[in-house]
Amino acid sequence: MKATSPATWNELVVDGRGNVYVNGRCEFDFSGGPPKGIIALVTPDGGVRQVADAIAFPNGMVVTPDNRTLIIGESMAGKLTAFDIEADGSLSNRRTWADGIGADGICLDTDGSIWAQSGPMETACVRVREGGEVLDRVELDRSPFACMLGGPDGQTLFILAAEWRGFEQVEEAIADRTGQVLIANAAASRAGWP
What we know:
- The chain is mainly β.
- It is 3% helix and 49% strand.
- The chain is built from 1 helix and 16 strands.
- The strands form 4 sheets. The protein has a 5-stranded antiparallel β-sheet with strand order 12-11-10-9-16, with no helix packed on it. The protein has a 4-stranded antiparallel β-sheet with strand order 1-2-3-4, with no helix packed on it.
- A hairpin with a 5-residue loop joins strand 11 and strand 12.
- The longest helix is centred in the C-terminal third of the chain and has 6 residues.
């Protein structure tokens, strides 16, 4: 992977061993073509290699506290996908962690649940456990696109949200300044990486 990579880089997560996972899209086809998103690994010694492909619009990522599992949001597939992390940082055992989730920016709590957008083009943020069971739901008047647990006890859910008017009206929504940072109380505190 070179600086001239065709990927448009999107998000990254650093695990507890200093490995950096970066996701990106290569020539993504919004009309439903095959997924071309990738995950690249940057190791502490400076090595760089691709460790996953065929990700349907890669977005938020978390690494579990034990550094053994990476979970990524596949926005266009409406799901969270998990991988086992091998000793050398490689990813294996790809599987669906939760389906029907409009995953963008995500975060993990101490119960092993993930906060994410409730579904593609929906206006709620949900706390979901592996397998897809929804444990908590925060209704909003606009679409959430990222969330993070923080605050003094790690139990404040910060949600970035904005009006979603479709890809063709993104610039208009930005110009109208519809974005907000919203907060809610959470049942469990922040965990994992980041």
